[in-house]
């Protein structure tokens, strides 16, 4: 059995007490440090210090409460900041907040999920970047896969959604793009057929172009035609043949075309229809549908008023025309801000000056008044009725001053002068759309009670309200050139007096002034409308006859009341145009729409290809076994069996530049000229395919500037791919030298992209110089 001495037990107790005291002091220190850290928003140190205080003093409930409460407060603040950073796309900033939370609360699930979201967002951003890169490279399939991966990680990823929209637009464009003959065959052709069958014509075209023509069974095999065309496009030639023979076509692929009769039944069978939805922003769907029915004679139109949408099912040409018409009609509505100032000025002047006497007095025998009401008072009249006794004439003989009574007249001194000025100012700013009314009312609604009674004694009251005050109605009509037409209706009314009817109801006398006008102002122009003046003067006098008419002294025996009231209304209005009508380009306001029976986006025409020689016999002729294709644009070759014409100009050209290029990389070509004759000018034309090259710039060479007196000008027509150059020197130049340099940007890959000199007309100093053989072609292999 172990025994502890009292001294040993006391020492143990003392040590435990000392330890508890030290722990309590340490907990207090940690608690104080933690609270100070929380005040300066040092959440990590603050929460950790408070946790240490709670651990050192587990029996102290306040320490534990402060720790848990401050931890929740810090977590809520940091999570709010992190969520805001995530919504704004600042993922790195949000990640810092989540990391701070995990430093003092390692098991916080929201912080862990936030970190996972940031990781997924980063992966989604990388996938979206890869998708964008794939779209630029033309790999739509791979781009679609990257977009799906990005949206799987973050469905609202902005870049991925933008790429997805671009991909869908490209796919829709490719799906709805109708192939044309200009893409199938680009060379010009000649046709010479007299009373030949249609199938013979198309067989010859098939051998020349390599395009297969498939005929519907109802196309007549013995149908004959006569046609002579030179140096035109295949598309125009076939359109003329089909239109003149009541036929139509459908391009099946790059080498096959279907020919069928142009009648309603076959059009329903072969003509493909497109469904197009139009979401309208400004014009009502019903109005747009009526326009399409009127102009394009469309039938299958569905209108949804709820979302302001219309759906159209027609052929691609009609759909394209409908898009152009709706684009012209669905424009932003004009709006205007009207700054109105209405000022009503009331001036009143009242002068009431003088002595006002009673206008009557009464003399009567004493004791004669036996009034059933009130007496005469001041002599102004009786409020009741008075009955006087009757006397005999003999009784009047005894009347004297002791038996007569008289009412003493009274006098009132009027000393009154009143001056009043009142201004009513209204300064509203009204924003209103074109041809919409804007109304404003500043004033009161005065109740008017109407009582209705029935024969059986039932009484009903009906209350109606009248607007009394300032009422303004403005209707703008916005014109082009920033002019605004305004229809203005202004009414200013006031309550003049109240009248009681015989039945006890109240009626009101209302004074009204109206103003109506139509104006046309420019943007920011102020128009002041004034002149609504009401000037009323009243003068009344009350005095003793004759005495009141005396000059100066008459004021002592009379009272003068002069009252004058003047009211004027002034209004100014200033329109400020917020948005006007934005007209489309003139080119989009007029476009071809085909014929009455057939809608087309371009007219039936025969186009001559640039650079083609019209009198050359190359082409398709009747009876030719192997018809030759027409010459390509920009080519010049002698007819079969003929020799090239000799070059008598003694002028040669030479291109210098890269033979290979990449799409998007700018290249520079130099054109040199060598002439044995003295030339004063060398006007020429350059030609490139606008779909192949973009002409960036043209710069002058040193051929005509050797003596510093040359001139150089040029005109670039980018849509047609042409450059017209004029280089000259009055003193002339000869020999070899650089004529010009042209900077080009390849747009599409092509192993044989060509740059041509179409024409050049040399101008000598005194003798005629022949034209050099054209064209001069320089070919470049353009890689993707």
TrEMBL record:
One of its GO terms (molecular function) is carbohydrate binding. Residues 211-262 form the Secretin/TonB short N-terminal domain. GO terms for cellular component: cell outer membrane; type II protein secretion system complex. The keyword Cytoplasm does not apply. CDD domains: Type_II_cohesin (cd08547). SUPFAM superfamilies: Carbohydrate-binding domain. PROSITE patterns: TPR (PS50005). Belongs to the bacterial secretin family. This is Type II secretion system protein. It comes from Undibacterium terreum. The gene is pulQ.
